[in-house]
């Protein structure tokens, strides 16, 4: 049976726990966890400890803690690889109606933060955007030319984490030769959690294909999707990544965001990106002017609410609540 694993701040020491109450969705929620008796300091170490002793999360006495103490269940030693335009609706709104290849980029692990931490809008950023995503966390290393299938994916993937791939669009498209890594890697730009949905290998393929996610902003649902809609699923994606790079246990692949982001690939915007490729300031200014006619983008004082569930299994996997603040 899947475990809901949390990582929480206990005095000055981060600790691991198994959630035994309902998963939280706001920082003021009170939850019950069984602290896990392990010296693991990383997500990879925690996964290995539970794989070696599956009863580990059930030993001990439950304690009540405030959800505000929760940290990212993915530790900062992880490599973060992201998929772009991996839902048909999001690809279309970005101007890529026919996806013909998997799109990869990276995100700094120092962007990881807890599910209820504030999101700081960096100085000079005007086009701050959200992207709800499902992150898949590796159970084992990926090496050269691995072939991952639906039958074997449980030996490669330990579980799933709700993520928000916060993006500074003006940095992504306004910096020299368009800096996606920079625009997505500011500190705090990857809220993760509240739980690591830790799956037993035989159930991984089915569970990873039915996770439902939803993002609410300004009182309205802006993004909603199921991982059944992914254009390039986890098995195919990990197989392709193995041809490019090594990945280690505990690393995470963010599987892409559905439609409904603020940034839209209008014909005028796409033309500006081409026309001013070598004029960074003009490209950024044109982009800001065009995009601000479509949306206000995230402003200090506003909040985002995100949720994830495995509806078929009847598992509510909790949610995030993030407030936007100024630098």
From TrEMBL:
Gene Ontology biological-process entries: small molecule metabolic process
Alphabetical list of Gene3D superfamilies matching this protein: Fumarylacetoacetase-like, C-terminal domain (3.90.850.10)
Residue ranges occupied by any Fumarylacetoacetase-like C-terminal domain in the UniProt entry: 80-308
InterPro entries for the chain: FAH (IPR051121), Fumarylacetoacetase-like_C (IPR011234), Fumarylacetoacetase_C_sf (IPR036663)
Keyword Nucleotide-binding: no
Protein origin, superkingdom: Bacteria
Keyword Zinc belongs to the record: no
Listed Pfam families: FAA_hydrolase
Keyword tags: Hydrolase, Metal-binding
GO molecular function, one term: metal ion binding
Similarity annotation: Belongs to the FAH family.
Official protein name in the record: Fumarylacetoacetate (FAA) hydrolase
Lineage: Bacteria, Pseudomonadati, Pseudomonadota, Alphaproteobacteria, Sphingomonadales
């Amino acid at each position: 049976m899947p475990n809901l694993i949390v990582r929480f701040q206990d005095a000055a020491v981060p600790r691991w726990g198994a959630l035994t109450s309902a998963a939280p969705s706001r920082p003021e929620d009170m939850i019950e966890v069984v602290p896990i008796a392990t010296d693991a300091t990383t997500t990879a170490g925690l996964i290995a400890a539970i794989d070696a002793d599956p009863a580990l999360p059930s030993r001990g006495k439950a304690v009540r803690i405030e959800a505000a103490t929760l940290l990212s269940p993915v530790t900062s030693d992880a490599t973060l690889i992201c998929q772009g335009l991996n839902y048909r609706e999001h690809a279309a709104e970005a101007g890529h109606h026919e996806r013909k290849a998997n799109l990869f980029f990276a995100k700094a692990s120092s962007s990881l933060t807890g599910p209820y931490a504030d999101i700081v809008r960096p100085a000079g950023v005007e086009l701050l955007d959200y992207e709800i995503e499902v992150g898949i966390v590796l159970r084992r290393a990926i090496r050269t030319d691995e072939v991952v299938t639906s039958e074997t994916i449980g030996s490669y993937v330990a579980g799933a984490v709700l993520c928000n791939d916060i993006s500074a669009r003006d940095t992504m498209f306004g910096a020299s030769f368009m800096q996606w890594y920079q625009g997505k890697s500011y500190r705090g730009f990857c809220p993760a959690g509240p739980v690591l949905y830790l799956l037993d290998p035989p159930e991984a393929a089915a569970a990873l294909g039915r996770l439902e996610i939803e993002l609410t902003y300004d009182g309205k649902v802006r993004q909603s999707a199921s991982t059944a809609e992914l254009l390039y699923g986890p098995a195919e994606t990990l197989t392709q990544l193995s041809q490019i790079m090594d990945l280690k246990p505990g690393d995470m692949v963010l599987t892409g965001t559905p439609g409904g982001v603020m940034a839209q690939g209008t014909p005028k915007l796409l033309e500006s990106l081409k026309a001013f490729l070598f004029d960074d300031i003009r490209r950024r200014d044109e982009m800001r002017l065009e995009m601000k006619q479509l949306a206000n983008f995230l402003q200090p004082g506003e909040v985002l609410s995100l949720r994830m569930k495995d509806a078929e299994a009847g598992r509510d996997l909790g949610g995030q609540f993030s407030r936007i603040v100024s630098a």
